[in-house]
């Protein structure tokens, strides 16, 4: 009798559960991400994927995703599950959803219908419960990283507003610049202890993530000091997200994009009032790096080597609009250069007609960098990863 119980129990724990956090703007030709989603949902010829659409504008995207999964990348099947507030409560829809081996949330606008429909008032609907069963049984769940967490969910805002004005809970501030708004009820709840964001480097969202963490880290139950943001057309594939999360960075074939991780545990909250922040430690991981999201241990892709002592450039290049949401990836680009040059710090500034100018200092004295040219890339694109870079920020008097 005992023996039978063990046999029944074992397969359930042996299967890896997979969460795919996508940084937005996933391209149809991103072989790495599409094939990983299929593999984690059972593999080609087995994967049966439910494509969740929660808005009328998402339908075309949904059809394209089904086409990619089945025709382009070899899933056995994929079908659209178009949800409304009513159908998300339906037992019949929930039963159907439970039988998929993978779930893909179609990218949503920042006014996220997905949350309103699947988790109204912060409570899981029947369909969301079924989606959680899919992953519990060893399946795959993928979607825009910004909506996937258990912690507060950022709804909108840019870094400059975040730095100077801080966060609001309601979408009430008017004006052309977009205020930082987050929701205290959290996202869909597939990963704990991180505030998540997407389009990270591409839209210069580093500071809005940092400020959200500083403003919310002491909230009861939901507060956390750790943040994680994924770049566009990039994914962090997280195995066992709710028990022992380990993430691997996947990008397009030749790409310097990656995943930004920050921890504000030791940054005093009073720094916020003066828009003066001291020594915020952050890291950036690139293609095929593996990060243990509990211990923060990192295994760099095996072809990357330590940068220390082998820095390529003489000098760092400051950015004159470090929080820019229009000029892409200023923060990423500045730090990629800094980790690979002989100087140890760089001072950047902002341009803003509305706010006081600020200076941002990056310091790599305590940082560890790993990098190399991407293997088999004729253009020899160099990618760099690093951990424990320090950012300090203060207004220019
Ligand atoms: C789900 O799969 C099981 C086992 O294959 C099957 O018996 C059941 O009818 C399926 N449910 C639905 C709603 O398709
Ligand atoms: C926050 O999310 C909850 C749960 O989905 C929802 O009821 C509430 O309206 C949201 N608040 C804002 C300001 O979006
Ligand atoms: C990353 O890992 C995958 C799977 O192991 C491999 O196919 C791919 O070539 C690797 N990419 C790079 C740039 O090393
Ligand atoms: C930057 O580093 C240099 C040493 O390389 C040091 O002299 C300088 O004071 C540092 N600047 C700042 C603003 O930390």
UniProtKB/TrEMBL annotation:
Keyword flag ATP-binding: no
InterPro entries (alphabetical): Class_I_gatase-like
Signal peptide bounds: 1-16
The organism's place on the tree of life at top rank: Eukaryota
Alphabetically ordered keywords of this record: Signal
PANTHER family: CYANOPHYCINASE
Protein name: Cyanophycinase
């Amino acid at each position: 009798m005992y023996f039978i119980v063990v046999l029944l129990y074992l397969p359930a724990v042996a299967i890896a559960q997979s969460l795919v956090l996508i940084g937005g703007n996933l391209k149809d030709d991103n072989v790495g991400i599409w094939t990983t989603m299929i593999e984690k949902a059972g593999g080609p010829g087995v994967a049966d994927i439910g494509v969740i659409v929660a808005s009328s504008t998402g339908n075309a995207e949904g059809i394209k995703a089904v086409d990619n999964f089945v025709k382009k990348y070899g899933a056995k099947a994929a079908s659209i599950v178009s949800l409304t507030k009513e159908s998300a409560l339906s037992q019949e829809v929930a039963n159907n959803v439970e039988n998929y081996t993978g779930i893909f949330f179609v990218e949503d606008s920042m006014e996220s219908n997905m949350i309103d429909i699947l988790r109204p008032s912060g409570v899981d609907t029947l369909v969301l419960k079924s989606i959680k069963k899919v992953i519990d049984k060893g399946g795959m769940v993928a979607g825009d990283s910004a909506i996937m967490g258990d912690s507060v969910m950022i709804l909108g805002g840019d870094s400059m507003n975040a730095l100077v004005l801080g966060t609001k809970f309601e979408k009430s501030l008017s004006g052309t610049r977009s205020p930082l708004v987050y929701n205290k009820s959290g996202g869909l709840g597939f990963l704990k202890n991180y505030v998540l964001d997407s389009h990270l480097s591409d839209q210069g969202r580093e500071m809005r993530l940092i400020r959200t963490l500083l403003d919310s880290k002491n909230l009861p139950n939901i507060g956390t000091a750790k943040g994680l943001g994924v770049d566009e057309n990039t994914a962090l594939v997280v195995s066992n997200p709710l028990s022992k999360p380990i993430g691997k960075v996947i990008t397009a074939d030749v790409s310097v994009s990656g995943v930004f991780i920050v921890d504000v545990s030791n940054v005093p909250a009073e720094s916020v009032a003066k828009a003066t922040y001291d020594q915020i430690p952050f890291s950036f991981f690139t293609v095929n790096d593996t990060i243990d999201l509990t211990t923060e241990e990192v295994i760099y892709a095996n072809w990357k080597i330590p940068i220390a002592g082998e820095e390529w450039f003489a000098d760092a290049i400051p950015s004159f609009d470090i929080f820019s949401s229009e000029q892409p990836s200023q923060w990423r680009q500045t730090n990629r250069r800094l980790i690979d040059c002989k100087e140890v710090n760089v001072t950047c500034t902002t341009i803003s007609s509305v706010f006081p100018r600020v200076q941002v200092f990056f310091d790599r004295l305590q940082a560890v960098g790993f990098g190399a040219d991407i293997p088999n890339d004729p253009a020899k694109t160099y990618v760099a990863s690093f951990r424990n870079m320090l950012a300090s920020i203060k207004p220019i008097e």
